[in-house]
Design goal:
Length: 66
């Protein structure tokens, strides 16, 4: 049953609904990870990325800037 209003309980319901829908659709990115990244020029930076419902699939990084 949907939660009304805003806040954590509504966010939790929305995340659970998204996960339930994605289970039948295959792998998907977990959008709960931080979207803001601060980096220093010339230093290594790590981007937090989670994939849910991966199963036996593989994730790879593709650089499209070339």
């Amino acid at each position: 049953m949907p939660q009304s209003g805003s806040g954590k309980s509504g966010d939790t319901y929305n995340q659970n609904a998204l996960e339930e829908t994605a289970r039948s659709a295959g792998p998907y990115f977990d959008k709960s990870a931080s979207k803001n990244v601060t980096a220093l020029l010339g230093k290594t930076t790590y981007l937090n990325c989670r994939v849910k419902n991966l199963g036996n699939k593989t994730v790879s990084d593709t650089n499209l800037s070339k």
